[in-house]
Specification:
The complex is a heterodimer of chains A (113) and B (114).
Chain A (H helix, E strand, L loop, with lengths): L3 E4 L2 E5 L4 E7 L3 E10 L3 E9 L4 E4 L2 E6 L4 E6 L8 E9 L7 E3 L3 E6 L1
Chain B lengths: L4 E3 L2 E4 L5 E6 L6 E7 L6 E7 L2 E4 L8 E4 L6 E5 L8 E8 L8 E2 L3 E5 L1
Classes of the chains: A mainly beta (113), B mainly beta (114).
Chain lengths: 113, 114
């Protein structure tokens, strides 16, 4: 079963614009992670945010986490064609979940020139 | 450092045949995962190991799938007999510490069952 659901399922923007994708999950978490997947490099970890953190930055990436709403968002600023990929949120379960790393359904991002 | 190694990269088999996939995680990584990813979907966790013990295999179809991680290092995932719906990419990943660190993924094995 999928723990998270991403929204939107697909997103198309122009280079230079910002891209925002959201993730909702169902159970308590230890941390939430975002991954990118494209045909060239496979599945790659982008950023990890712990359950006691609310916001984290890494380069052009900004992640927020709202544990009361069981949701997270990933913002990519000043997008580039190379950002074209599928983006997945993944959660590490909290106590009693065997710390499973469970992925969501993904957002397909297309960045056009 | 060397990444997660998987083999083979591609495999085509007929239904009811058996197949095995191999994974060598990053050196020193205690946690190892196997995922199944069907085209257009997110990776689905099949089994998760901590060293050579199983942490979770609740979504592993145990009537046909099996996995082992002998000596807590490399791992094999087997399907016997294969069904058409097993066509997918099988991803192996490893993590340094269970529950708190990111996972590093191999390039995967693309399985086609005809």
């Amino acid at each position: 079963s999928q723990q998270g659901e991403e929204d939107p399922q697909a997103l198309s923007i122009q280079e230079g614009e910002n891209a925002t994708m959201n993730c909702s999950y169902k159970t308590s978490i230890n941390n939430l992670q975002w991954y990118r997947q494209n045909s060239g490099r496979g599945l790659v970890h982008l950023i990890l945010i712990r359950s006691n953190e609310r916001e984290k930055h890494s380069g052009r990436l900004r992640v927020t986490l709202d544990t009361s709403k069981k949701s997270s968002s990933l913002l990519i600023t000043a997008s580039r064609a190379a950002d074209t990929a599928s983006y997945f949120c993944a959660t590490i379960g909290g106590p009693g979940t065997a710390s499973k790393l469970t992925f969501g359904t993904g957002t397909r991002l297309q960045v056009t020139l | 450092e060397a990444g997660v190694a998987q083999s083979p990269r591609y495999k085509i088999i007929e239904k009811r045949q058996s197949v095995a996939f191999w994974c060598n995680p990053i050196s020193g990584h205690a946690t190892l995962y196997w995922y199944q990813q069907i085209l257009g979907q997110g990776p689905k966790l099949l089994i998760q190991f901590q060293n050579n013990g199983v942490v979770d295999d609740s979504q592993l179809p145990k009537d046909r799938f099996s996995a082992e991680r002998l000596k807590g290092v490399d791992s094999t995932l087997k399907i016997q007999p294969a069904k058409l719906e097993d066509s997918a990419v099988y991803l192996c990943a490893s993590s340094l510490v269970l529950g708190v660190a990111e996972a590093f993924f191999g390039q995967g094995t693309r399985l086609t069952v005809v």
